[in-house]
Amino acid sequence: MINQENLTLWDLIDLEVLANSQKKIANLSSFPIFTAAPDGNAFGEMMNCTPFCQLIRSSAKGAFLCQKSESMISKVSFKKGQCQVHDCHMGLKNCAVPIVIDGLFLGSVLGGQFFVEGEEYKKYQFNIEKLSKEFNISKDELKDAISKIPVVPEKYVFDCLEYCEFLADYITEIGMRNVTKKKLLNQIEKNLEFQKKAKMAELKTLEAQINPHFLFNTLNSIARMAFFEDSPNTEEMIYCLSDLLRYNLKEIEEFPTINSELQNIERYLFIQNIRYKDRLKYYIDVPEELLSYRIPSMILQPIVENAIVHGLEPKAEGGIIYISSEIKKEKIIIMIKDTGVGIPSKKLNYLLTNPEESMGLGVKNSHNRLNTYFGPDYGLRISSVENVETIVEIHFPCFKELSPIPKFIN
């Protein structure tokens, strides 16, 4: 639960993102739609507002009564735990969907401002003279605005509710992501561990105890918004990120196939390619007959990430990453080459003679794990030409079957 008594929806949601999302939904649907705090105070512009409601809200008293009415139905929808359709203080139908984040009622999405078919008579029961005095609005303006109040079929009400629910779900998931961000980071940090030289143990580079259902629903919601916004690259990037996280967070095998690991790397490289645009290109060329062989999990990604961050990123024009593989004397060698800034000769010499001291954490883990599983003849081999290229070779034995345990594991 959130323990902040004065927390508001606007503390959790970027106002510009919310305004743009609300506007796009309104443009797609043509329904009057807006987001409000629990007290009925509207956020930003009320999209597609009917002339009658605009006119009533133009007076101080009308605006007060509208806000009070919206606050009332929002609180009712929260207490009942579901969306509501109600008559506002002027008798028009309105829809309300509560926004509840981590158990706190922080607002609602509202839409409507219409009569349902069969209620046309209500248009003619307004006391125009009384309304004119009460809200200080001219009779002619009132008559014209009342004539424009829409009368809609019942299906229209359900469609309006559906769009309100979509926007409310989107806001809720974004809010939950921000509320739990620190919690997730702390949990990931606590669960990150590496057991050095622990033979036959489940060794993983990354472990995170999070709720995959919430995470992937959030990503899918963002992807749907990207679809509505006609952003195919953003949509594809989100789905790739979802698959990448799903692979990294699930209980993966200790020795997945090379094919599985390469598919995961391709998702990672696709995302980085979108990020770096023309500065990053990549090619993967691994013979099909090698794809069914086994490799320790999460060996490739730290090395590819290292190539991007330390090899290509410092280079103004970027570069290319090549991934290839071959078999030599029952040993599989996977080569990861980048055309980045390379490694100065002095630093490379030190790295080659003191690998455990010089490698970054992720690369060091990969090297140590290969040594742990297969012995000192296996691990990483690094070569580099400054300002030309860096090549990291991953050496490990050929094997496909996991049972019985291969003889090279002591």
Tell me roughly what share of residues is in helical segments: 40-55%
- The helix/strand class is alpha+beta
Number of strands: 11
Low-confidence stretches: 191-211
- Report the CATH architecture of the domain at 9-174: 2-Layer Sandwich
Described by the principal axes of the CA atoms, the overall outline is: elongated
Q: Write down the Rg.
A: 30 Å
Polypeptide structure, described:
Residues 295-400 form the Histidine kinase/HSP90-like ATPase domain. Pfam families: HATPase_c, His_kinase, PocR. By secondary structure, this protein is an alpha+beta fold. It has helices spanning 9-12, 15-29, 51-57, 60-80, 128-135, 139-147, 154-179, 181-191, 212-228, 232-249, 258-276, 300-312, 345-353, 355-358, 361-374, and strands at 33-36, 42-47, 84-87, 93-101, 104-116, 151-152, 280-285, 319-328, 331-338, 379-385, 389-397. Among the domains are: 9-174, 2-Layer Sandwich (Beta-Lactamase); 278-397, 2-Layer Sandwich (Heat Shock Protein 90). Helix 2 (15-29) packs antiparallel against helix 7 (154-179) and helix 9 packs antiparallel against helix 10 (232-249). The longest helix has 26 residues, at 154-179. Mean pLDDT is 78; it is low at 191-211.
